[in-house]
Structures are given as structure tokens and as C-alpha cells.
Amino acid sequence: MEKITQTEWAREIGVSKQYVCYLVKKGIVELEDGLIDREQANRAIETIRDPSQPLRRKNYSESGEKLSTMLLKTRIKNEMERGKLLEAKAKAEIGELIAVEEVRNEAFNVARVVRNNLLNIPNRVSALLASLSDTEKIHKTLTEEITNSLQELSNTKFQI
After folding, report:
1. How far is C-alpha 95 from the chain's CA centre?
2. What pLDDT, in 10s, does the model give residues 126-156?
């Protein structure tokens, strides 16, 4: 015969303390020294229970409630991450997203073309500049060549 308080028994069977007090007042559950005999109370509940209704037992303890809250939060986070992943996969399939490695390779290739084009300017204009002695003409020629080179690059369609 294990005796427990009304609050503990209410928590065990998943009802309010007020309902336990109601059962005590009606004489369905008996108190001995202010405590409930667990076995007698459970038998009494079984006799008055409506079999068409599901059992309402919830064996919660304080740590159990914290655990279930933590579990719920973890599940919510997992579902959010799963949703983000599915959204990213869908966007990748329709072409809205591309892989980081593809972007890096393409950026490297574009930068290499720009660098090569700029480094090629001296080869194209060195003979012309050697014949010029006026600094203004040299400056103008270099500026035109750089502008033409950059304009040519801006008109080029890169595969992205």
C-alpha cells in the first residue's frame, strides 16, 4: 500500500487536483491521513471510467516536461532545417541556385581573361609608343588602348 499526495496522484493520472478533490468529496477515492492509497484509487477510477473514452494518463515529472519541451524544440529545429534544405534543392533544380564551386571556377576564369587582356596591352602598343616622343600622345594612346580592352571585355558574354 503506497500512499501519495493528491497532487502527485493527479499528475500521475493526468487530471487536475480539483478533480481529485471532487473524487474525494464524492467518496470514490478515500483519504488516509491526508494521503491517497494509489492502488485503491486506481481501482476506483477504473470502475467509474467510461470505456469509450481513451486513457488520459500522462506520467509527467518535472524533468519529463523539460525533456518533452526540449524534444519539441529539437523537432521544430530539425523540421525547419529540413524545409530549408528541400527549398534549396528545389531552387537548384529550377536553376535559381548554383553550386559555390561553379561560381568560384567561373569567377577565376573571368578574372584570368581580364588579367591576360590587360597584360597583353604592352605587346600591342609597344612599337607604336616607341616611335612617339610626345607625352600627351603616349598618354592618349595608352588610355585608348586600356579603354578599348575593357570595352571589349564588357561586351564579351561569359558562360555563367
Report:
1. 22
2. 888 888 888 888 899 889 988 888 888 888 7
125: left (phi over 0), alpha (psi -120 to 50) or beta: alpha
Residue given cell 596591352 in the structure block: 121
* Cα 87 versus chain centre, distance: 11
**Most confidently modeled of 81-85, 86-90, 98-102, 143-147?**
81-85
